[in-house]
């Protein structure tokens, strides 16, 4: 039960003055931005808008010796050159090169690697782009089995990285008896890519390598020279387009 006594109300201005005098507190500074606020020679801090953080775009390369720098060096390989090129763009980009010499969709290369093992070891939900490049190492494989292996690789990628862009690039042209094998490999990769709605790039039909004596090939007539690595970087960079600006 309350009593009838009420405390007298103290005006806010008087209370503030009393508080300042008693406690030594400074009055609240005037934060108005304009000529009036400059008369007391106090600087005013204006908050600038903070840019929205951007997620790193992750590009994974699945491939064979065309992507490892075989015949040149890993530093000259087109994935490294692509990474260096994209390093200066506003969107942060990470290029993960999982390619292994001798590997294919079926063929087993260095460290027992196939394209399938490369996928499982390098791709997850944070992957944004997957590039498959090659592989003439699958020469002599049964076409139906090769088609199934390409389909399996594409499906595994879709499962591990549902939102990733996938690009399949066929093998480079051959100018000897292996040319017919290259055509079979190219055809199976292309059909599998089309079956699942994935972009297919055909270096054979597009004549990426004009002939066996091209400066784009190294001494072995099969693997890219340093000039060829630069050429591949330019072609594949154009295929991928600019990195996507994705908020975190």
UniProtKB/TrEMBL annotation:
Residues of the signal peptide: 1-23
InterPro entries: Ester_Hydrolysis_Enzymes, Lipase_GDSL_AS, SGNH_hydro, SGNH_hydro_sf
UniProt KW keywords: Signal
Ranges for region Disordered: 211-248
Domain SGNH hydrolase-type esterase: 62-230
Methyltransferase keyword on record: no
UniProt KW NADP keyword: no
PANTHER family in the record: SGNH HYDROLASE-TYPE ESTERASE DOMAIN-CONTAINING PROTEIN, THIOESTERASE 1/PROTEASE 1/LYSOPHOSPHOLIPASE L1
Name of the protein described by the UniProt record: SGNH hydrolase-type esterase domain-containing protein
Organism of origin: Arthrobacter liuii
């Amino acid at each position: 039960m309350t009593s009838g006594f009420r405390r007298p109300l103290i005006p806010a201005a008087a209370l503030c003055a009393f508080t300042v005098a008693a406690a030594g507190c400074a009055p609240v500074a005037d934060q108005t931005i304009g000529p009036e606020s400059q008369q007391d020679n106090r600087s005013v801090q204006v908050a600038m808008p903070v840019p929205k953080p951007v997620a790193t775009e992750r590009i994974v390369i699945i491939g064979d010796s065309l992507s490892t720098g075989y015949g040149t060096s890993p530093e000259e390989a087109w994935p490294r050159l692509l990474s260096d090129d994209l390093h200066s763009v506003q969107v942060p980009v990470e290029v993960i090169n999982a390619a292994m010499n001798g590997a294919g969709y079926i063929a087993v290369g260095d460290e027992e690697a196939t394209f399938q093992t490369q996928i499982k070891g390098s791709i997850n939900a944070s992957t944004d782009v997957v590039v498959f490049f090659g592989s003439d190492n699958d020469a002599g494989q049964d076409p139906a089995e090769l088609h199934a292996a390409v389909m399996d690789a594409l499906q595994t990628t879709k499962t591990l990285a549902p939102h990733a862009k996938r690009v399949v690039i066929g093998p480079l042209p051959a100018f000897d008896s292996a040319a017919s094998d290259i055509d079979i490999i190219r055809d199976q990769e292309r059909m599998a890519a089309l079956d699942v709605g994935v972009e297919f790039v055909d270096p054979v039909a597009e004549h990426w390598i004009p002939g066996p004596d091209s400066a784009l090939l190294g001494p072995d007539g099969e693997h890219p020279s340093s000039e060829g690595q630069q050429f591949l970087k330019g072609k594949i960079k154009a295929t991928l387009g600019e990195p996507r600006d994705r908020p975190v």
